[in-house]
Specification:
This is Integral membrane protein. By secondary structure, the protein is mainly α. About 60% of the residues lie in helices and about 0% in strands.
Length: about 160
């Protein structure tokens, strides 16, 4: 799912995002409280590596082509943006390096993606970047729900624009 095709009602999608926003706020508060204790070079590296491996390659491939990209990019995104993967990375870091506040970059990134931007794991059935899907808009119509405003950084397809209210 993505932020313009959550396949939930707009209200439940907002509540889903709000849960991650709480995690984002807690990780932000911990970063502020422990600001002087954070080794910033590792923290920045931990924050960036998720997208360097998991998002940027797929985004480049998507923009260079016609939108039909290898499923490998979806897998990279989902693995790198998984709370399970990043918990394993944090555990390995604690074991091999040391427990440290720089690891807050991991939940800060993931909870921010989900809570602030509505970016959840990517489905093979949808474009890599968010594009309004006419089927989702029809579902909302059938449920008698208003269409949410477009969100995020994706573009709308010509066919989806014609289907919007």
């Amino acid at each position: 799912m993505d932020q313009v095709n959550p396949f939930e009602t707009p209200t439940t999608f907002s509540l889903h995002r709000a849960e991650y926003l709480v995690g984002f706020l807690i990780s932000t508060a911990l970063i502020i409280v422990h600001f002087d204790d954070i080794r910033w070079l590792p923290a920045i590296g931990l924050f960036l590596y998720i997208d360097i491996i998991g998002y940027i390659p797929g985004a480049i491939a998507y923009r260079r082509g016609d939108g039909d990209i290898s499923k490998v990019y979806y897998v990279l995104y989902n693995v790198m943006h998984s709370l399970i993967t990043q918990a394993a990375v944090a555990a390995l870091w604690c074991w091999l390096v040391e427990p440290e506040w720089a690891l807050l970059a991991l939940p800060f990134h993931l909870f921010g993606d989900r809570g602030l931007f509505g970016n959840f794991l990517k489905s093979f059935a949808l474009p890599f970047e968010p594009v309004r899907q006419p089927g989702y808009l029809r579902l909302l119509d059938e449920l008698g729900l208003r269409h949410p405003k477009p969100a995020g950084h994706g573009s709308q397809s010509k066919s989806a624009l014609g289907a919007e209210r």
